[in-house]
Specification:
The complex is a heterodimer of chains A (about 110) and B (about 110).
Chain A: E1 4-6, E2 10-13, E3 19-25, E4 31-38, E5 42-51, E6 54-57, E7 64-70, E8 73-78, E9 87-94, E10 99-101, E11 105-109
Parallel strand pairs in A: 2-11
Antiparallel strand pairs in A: 1-3, 3-8, 4-5, 4-9, 5-6, 7-8, 9-10, 9-11
Chain B: E1 9-13, E2 18-23, E3 31-38, E4 45-50, E5 53-56, E6 61-64, E7 70-75, E8 84-92, E9 104-109
Parallel strand pairs in B: 1-9
Antiparallel strand pairs in B: 2-7, 3-4, 3-8, 5-6, 6-7, 8-9
Classes of the chains: A mainly beta (about 110), B mainly beta (about 110).
Amino acid sequence: DVKVTQSSRYLVKRTGEKVFLECVQDMDHENMFWYRQDPGLGLRLIYFSYDVKMKEKGDIPEGYSVSREKKERFSLILESASTNQTSMYLCASSGSWIYTFGSGTRLTVV
Amino acid sequence: LAKTTQPISMDSYEGQEVNITCSHNNIATNDYITWYQQFPSQGPRFIIQGYKTKVTNEVASLFIPADRKSSTLSLPRVSLSDTAVYYCLVGGRSSYKLIFGSGTRLLVRP
């Protein structure tokens, strides 16, 4: 069964901390994505990557960066966490038009 | 990417058939229609994908009329566990970026 694994299910971080969210896929997919999901706002695309070391901004990249050093791993970095980045973060990968999502990381910034 | 319009919410009872219609008037020639299901605190899960006419799998059916400006997801004999948010997405296989709408919140009652 194909899998996208997010390293943490729940995280609590302090304002100003640098936060790393890790995502690993075992499907040899080219494309990987980071979304955040907030009540009333749905899923919004933060960044995506269509190849190793390649990345493109999504709709809400401000305050975030990403790293894709290996095909199977896509990391989301919050350079200086703020309370408005409290959210559910979802990673996904795709080899075609069908996406596989991870279970999500619920991040709380206090 | 074509914009989609779905009902915000629907109610049903166990054992009934549920049909959720999605409108996508600006669908392009090479666009596919894909539906995802999302339970609370989980990532969306692929249900079904189609291009035209009818597609059926073990979970659902997808009906697409000839003009492809709408599609209907049909869930036969729903159970309480089908309570979830259902997203309709439209896009071409050459585009690897998914844009989620608000989805339809389906509530299945006993």
